[in-house]
User: Fold these one by one.
Assistant:
Number 1:
Amino acid sequence: MEKAWKLLSQDAKLSPENVKEPLKEIRRALLEADVSLPVVRRFMKRVEEKALGQEVIVGTTPQMALVKVVSDELTELMGSKGAKDLEPGFPQVVLMAGLQGVGKTTACGKLALYLRKQKKSVLMVATDVYRPAAIDQLVKLGKAIDVPVFELGTSVSPVEIAKRGIEEGRKLGFDAVIVDTAGRLQVCSFTVIVDTAGRLQVCSFTVIVDTAGRLQLCSFTVIVDTAGKLQIDGDMMTELKDIKAAIKPTDTLLVVDAMTGQEAANLVKTFNDEVDISGAILTKMDGDSRGGAALSVREVSGKPIKFMGVGEKMDSLEQFFPERMASRILG
Ligand code: GDP
């Protein structure tokens, strides 16, 4: 970005001419960080409006003024306002939602440990009746951090398990109950447009889906999604809504993989429209993602990112700091 900044060094006011190139660089940086395109467009428009005409304080340079506008705007957007911790309640009931493989079950354990460190008693509830391995995984995590897990196997409905788990939590006086849910399936994780002589074709092929470190070979039909909408398994979403209605959580957290990239905006919109999330947990921030998903989450839903997952271990959960995220996104 240095070259573009140099263009600014002689001017005393930010003008359309002297911000043009640097704004282009910023736009590119945001796209490279995987912020979704509509979010980038709206963001850039706001930055431009705020920057133009801005006086440059004596002793500083115009580039400093523009950098400040951009990072202030990023920081504000990602949550200088709004609750960053869990909502209060007795018990606090946290419903976890998200696609399969994003790190939801791991995040349940991390959150449980985080609450335990605040001297709170925590119960976790396993409702993923579709994948017995997911129940086992939660039980194992619970053992490792000394947090009990309520489960009723796979023959009781998830709504019933969640309800009874909360009842159990209340009866035994737990301070917090964390409900793990089945990962929503993403029917169409990307758009394939096969453009042959101007005609769009829907095509069937085999894709290797990597969920939770295991490779699965599956055949499916790619749905060419021209409206740009993400499609998430409808039955699963209805079930999530039913669980939410039954347990009335104090928090509904969407777990988002930081590597999600451009799709984060659609993903967040879908979940927020359907179950009205109270915030998000951004996982896998220890990876090399620049974390553009963070900006998309906040911009689309207006809800805060409450925590970040920064590793596979149970103590790798951090609170979200918008300022740090802003500089990571800008690169
Ligand atoms: P779920 O299907 O959403 O419940 O996902 P899991 O909790 O099973 O996690 C999927 C994989 O991601 C596992 O291998 C986890 O160890 C890994 N994982 C989860 N959170 C993080 C994180 O913050 N950083 C890293 N590097 N790996 C993570």
Number 2:
Amino acid sequence: MSAAHPSIVVLTGAGISKESGLDTFRCAGGIWDRVNLEDVATPEGFARDPALVQRFYDDRRRQLVESDVQPNAAHVALARLEREWPGEVLIVTQNIDDLHERAGSTNLIHMHGELLKVRCDACGTIQAWRTDLHVETPCPACAHVGAMRPHVVWFGEMPLQMERIHEALSGCGLFLSVGTSGNVYPAAGFVHVVLDLGDAHTAELNLEPSLGASLFEEQVYGPATEVVPAYVERLLTKGIP
Ligand code: APR
């Protein structure tokens, strides 16, 4: 990492995929307005009614696979930043869609898992999955029946790759937060990690102030498809503020 071009960490949330047609969680009419998260996004909910949970993720998986959901200009701008920024650019996404990948981002951590993957709780095998998932589907790896679940991190479970994320946060020169309400930890606490461990510039790009807005040195508000490409263009032409 050169001093002139320090590494950049970008945290993204549901807001970056909103203009691609995927719902957020806490905006008006969001997913948690329609479904009780205790029923579909907790291990207890899965144990209580696995079929309800599978249907919830089947519907979202089908939307991603079958409808014309495409990456938007914000996803594309972040992939451009990864290609053209001379230092490392790491995207840490809370989203379980595949729009960052489809926009061309490769240095990416899905800290809440991925909708297009499933895992077997008997053998731990994680595999790509683009169709409906039934609990009684035998695991293709170990043939165990009844242990297949979405590879998604539920409330009360440990997010993925936290050590790598903390390492990246403590060493970066710019921390960008895009399209997240700052409601859910540990992601909502990443800006504290950056401020405590380093001297990175911090910026929030969102439709409206998040719960942690005041912690960011810079706030840029507007739709992600407008503010993210403009911010990336400024970074690439003028550097980190
Ligand atoms: N452009 C930019 N930001 C937007 C847009 C848009 N077009 N539309 C909405 N937003 C913003 C909202 O203002 C809100 O602050 O995106 C944010 C979405 O917040 P949430 O719905 O809470 O989603 P997120 O922050 O990603 O939730 C975090 O909570 O339920 C869990 O696992 C789930 O990963 C999710 C986590």
